[in-house]
Amino acid sequence: MREFSETELLLELEPVVAGELDRHHKVAKEWFPHEYVPWSEGTNYDGVFDGKAWEETDTKLPEEARISLIVNLLTEDNLPSYHHEIATTFGRDAAWGTWVHRWTAEEGRHAVAIRDYLTVTRAVDPVALERARMVHMGEGFTNSYDGVLSSLAYVSFQELATRISHRNTGKASQDPNCERLLARIAADENLHMLFYRNLLNAAFQLAPAQTMRAVTDVVTTFQMPGTGIEGFTRKAMTIANAGIYDLRLHIDDVLMPVLRQWGVFEMTDLGPDGEKAREELSDFLVRIETSASRFVERREARRARQAAGA
């Protein structure tokens, strides 16, 4: 079975990129971040305008939603590094380059809108948030995967995971303004996922064994781009315990829908290397299914104990 070089993959997939770009332009809806922020709720902070310093009692959001919003925002803040990574991998020429810049422009709205909402509603400490942004962006982001196929596989899952996280954070906020904003952002992420998912589907038709290996490598090592955030493990556990994003959701709402869409378990033209990669993928899914079920059982038992003691 033929192995495609990186240059060949970029050239062969470019017509698909062009087609997906045309489709994206037709379905993407223009929106404006300022329309989703309740500006009338804003008041001056301490500093040059001599307002009121932020206090813990200012926030109306549940703690788990606030933590998730901070993680999501700091993740979105690293856009310059993400742009560098995808521009380096996909290039800036022709349809690939047009998509890279379009994607970056659309993603750029997300941090602006979330930060404006959090600041205006006094939902978070703006000083602590800015310091966290400086630290996180100072570390940057480096793509953990080499090559076009692995990068496409990663963003196919990551964009969907981000969509799920935003949507569930909005619901957990118990604030209709926050939920409306995050639903709008999630809609962007969904279109980005469709772009990458469809592109990798074309890669499966072109180089099935190579693509299967890339998908397996990504699924078995997947991490969200915000893992470099200070205190991420503790924050992620709070988010998981709240049911905003956990391993159960990762399997049921991210991994399996995308894998089924590609039809990875029905493919018959993978060759020995592709079959080996698929077997590794299947074994991994069995293992994490067990872990996900155990986590949910422990969480439900803990909630039951808390309810009984209330």
CATH topology value:
Ribonucleotide Reductase, subunit A
Low-confidence stretches: none
Helix content: over 70%
Overall number of structural domains: 1
CATH superfamily: Ribonucleotide Reductase, subunit A
Structural class determined from secondary elements: mainly alpha
Count the beta strands: 0
The CATH class designation is Mainly Alpha
User: Percent of residues in beta strands?
Assistant: under 5%
Task: Specify the biggest β-sheet.
Answer: none
Mean pLDDT over the full residue set: 95
Overall 3D geometry?
globular
- How big is the Rg? 21 Å
Q: What is the correct CATH architecture?
A: Orthogonal Bundle
Following the backbone from N to C, one meets helices and strands in this order, namely: HHHHHHHHHHH
Subunit structure: Homodimer.
Protein name: Acyl-[acyl-carrier-protein] desaturase
GO molecular function, one term: stearoyl-[ACP] desaturase activity
InterPro entries: Fatty_acid_desaturase-2 (IPR005067), Ferritin-like_SF (IPR009078), RNR-like (IPR012348)
Structure description:
Belongs to the fatty acid desaturase type 2 family. It comes from Streptosporangium lutulentum. With 310 residues, the protein is mainly alpha-helical. The protein has one domain (6-309): Ribonucleotide Reductase, subunit A, CATH 1.10.620. Helices cover 72% and strands 0% of the residues. The chain has 11 helices and no strands. It has helices spanning 6-27, 63-77, 79-90, 94-120, 126-139, 148-173, 176-206, 208-219, 232-241, 247-262, 271-309. α1 packs across α4 (94-120), α2 runs antiparallel to α6 and α3 (79-90) runs antiparallel to α4. It is globular and about 70 Å long.
